[in-house]
Amino acid sequence: MKKLHIAFDPIYAHPLPEGHRFPMLKYELIPAQLLYEGSICPDNLFAPQPCPEEVLLWTHDMAYVDKLKNQTLSAKEQRHIGFPQSPALTQREFIITQGTIDCCHHAFENGVALNVAGGTHHAFAERGEGFCLLNDFGVAANYLLRKELAKQLLVVDLDVHQGNGTAKLFEEEPRVFTFSMHGKNNYPFHKEKSDLDVELPDGIDDTAYLNLLYHYLPNLLDTVRPDLVFFLSGVDILSTDKFGKLKVSMDGCRRRDEFVLEQLHQRGLPCVISMGGGYSPEVRTIVDAHCQTFRAAQRIYGL
């Protein structure tokens, strides 16, 4: 029997070092809310194991992975990442990355799978930045290609920030098409070149935002014809977001997710979703916006 699989890291049930707690609080609250309202059951959740180092090295440089494992990142490298290094943080990143790989297998079987965390699209092969240590979509894409589980992949990155790390990782890999729709005047201020970048002006509203998505996505799906789609569903496009600079409403964010998933489902395309960013002042706003994504996936894929 098919069901919705959701990767969840149980490390969030334990205290994390000072400086990590608030940014990660949503990762506890999202599954808790979905369980409380009855949208999912405990058996929808699974706890991934840490990603094997061998698999990480298909994407990330050995010297960088060694720094993460041995806690030898420089102060400058930690500032670029935005978190102080800790064994718990590194363990979390290894688990998140494996969660996205596991979601690929579940998506091939059931149509869609979601990672409560992930979407760490600012991580490059040799460094991390922007709260991202390892690039979960990058590692998962290279895993699928290396294992010959897919011939063509598509990344649909709708976080408000450009997926610069992902773009750089696959700039010379035609089997992974990167599409990023992001704030023109937002982080990162030096943009990499995705296969398709759609830059958004500050203050764009629901209608203008969705019309751009309606214009680009269907043609992209029919042209690229991927075997699987990675969808980064960041909710930092919300008007309430502290850093987003856009004016998309909660309803507009919901319609974005529904449109993406409906387009994929109509074409029979498996989808792996990672949550990405969200920095509204009220954590409840962030959680509510992310939970919309889970409900949409469950309804549209009939799980």
Folded structure, characterized:
Belongs to the histone deacetylase family. This is Acetoin utilization deacetylase AcuC. GO terms for molecular function: histone deacetylase activity; hydrolase activity. Keywords: Hydrolase. It comes from Cnuella takakiae. The chain is of the alpha/beta class. It has a single domain (5-300), classed as Arginase, Chain A, CATH 3.40.800. It is built from 10 helices and 8 strands. An 8-stranded parallel sheet has the order 2-1-3-8-7-4-5-6, with helices on both faces. α1 (21-36) crosses α10 (283-300), α8 packs parallel to α9 (250-266) and α9 runs parallel beside α10. The longest helix has 24 residues, at 87-110.
Considering the protein shown, what is the CATH homologous superfamily?
Histone deacetylase domain
The overall pLDDT average reads 94
Amino-to-carboxy terminus distance: 9 Å
Q: What top-tier CATH class fits best?
A: Alpha Beta
Q: Quickly give the structural class.
A: alpha/beta
Rounded radius of gyration (Å): 17 Å
Give the overall shape: globular
Family: Belongs to the histone deacetylase family.
Domain Histone deacetylase: 33-291
Keywords: Hydrolase
GO molecular function: histone deacetylase activity; hydrolase activity
List keywords for this structure.
303 residues; alpha/beta; single chain; eight-stranded parallel β-sheet; Arginase, Chain A; 10 helices; globular
